[in-house]
Amino acid sequence: MPFGNAFGWPHLIVILVVILLLFGAPKLPGLAKSLGQSMRIFRKEVSTLKDEKAADERRSDVTVVEESAPVASSGSGANIPEPGPTPAQGAAAEPGSNSSQPKP
Q: Transmembrane stretches, by residue range (predicted)?
């Protein structure tokens, strides 16, 4: 059931008359003012969220570019050297020597 023509001019006039009867003529200007202020605040918040989302996307794009490592042009990266011993590990101990004593 399409709702494209659900509210025509006669329907809007009936709705406005009901609003006038419910709220009364003296309260309508205040009601319209508060409705306008609410819509202004809502639009401002929506635009702020859109701006923040765009800024987050720009920041995440920059972060991804900074974190990516250069890619080797050789293809699969099979020529990557093995890491050497760390300073804490030192060189491999020779057989028969006491590794706790410093070497001369």
A: 6-25
Could you read off the pLDDT of 39-79 as tens digits, one per residue?
A: 999 999 999 999 999 988 888 776 655 555 555 555 555 56
**Residue 52 vs residues 39, 55, 60, 66, 76: alpha-carbon distances, Å:** 20, 5, 12, 21, 39
| Predicted TM-score (pTM) of this structure | 0.41
Report the C-alpha gap between 84 and 91 in whole angstroms: 10
DSSP-based three-state secondary structure for 20: helix
Smallest CA-to-CA distance from 103 within 89, 87, 93, 84 is with 93
Q: 28-67 and 9-23 helices cross at what angle (nearest 10)?
A: 110
Alpha helices in 1-104 (DSSP H): 9-23, 28-67
Distance of CA 80 to the CA centre of its chain: 36
